[in-house]
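Box 4.2: Ligand-aware structure prediction
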Amino acid sequence: MTIQKILKMKNKEKIVMVTAYDAPTAKILEKAGVDIILVGDSLGNNVLGYDSTIPVTLEEMIIHLQAVRRGAPNSFIVADLPFLSYGYNIEESVKNAGLLIKNGANAVKIEGGAQNCEIIKKCLNIGIPVMGHLGFTPQSLNMFGGYKVQGKEESAKKKLLDDALALENCGVFSIVLEMVTETIAKEVTEKLSIPTIGIGAGRYCDGQVLVFHDIVGLNPEFKPKFSKTYANTFEIMLNAIERFKAEVKEKTFPSKENVFEEGGK
Ligand code: KIV
């Protein structure tokens, strides 16, 4: 996959993006042939045990990005710039974006609209492709006052559209639209010539992204309306561990097949 191919997919073929934070997951995603692997800062909620993406650091992102690259050597990987690794200082932001590229990403994702255009242009100038992210942007959770659907009021719709056009004009190759109404996601998608990738943004985006843990049911207490669980992996793993525990307690594991014997193999 390349930026050029992703751009050409608009109006032709839906784009599939899934998150990964480790090598085994990345291996599954590469085997399944997803179009883009996202090393999201949802790493915080899904793997590191934080209650939001806000505590995630650039160093944590890099460790997990490196693991994903090792697991998916041939995939197109986008990595999130985490909270406070960009925005307050342009040079620092561009350097941090560059560190993600040096550590295996093909592109970086930055939350926010027109206010990021200067950073995005500088990134593009030195060869760092950027994906935008609008709507509910989890790093601004404290500004939104909770996980709320965006783009409902006329002023919010206008701002979303203006931001999307500003991002397109400054050169992002696609935009994630998160938790916005289907109506505004459709309008934005139709007005842009770059692809939109939705999560909780309805049916008309050019692609869809979901979190791996939600797809495979690894976090059964978390069932947002916009997501879909395709497997009950939590139950499968729990069952495996319970069976192992039971077999050790009742001394049926290890059995003869699992032991090394003198003179044997
Ligand atoms: O970090 C993440 O998983 C994301 C998706 C919600 C798009 O940014």
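In the box above, the bound molecule is 3-methyl-2-oxobutanoic acid. The radius of gyration is 21 Å.
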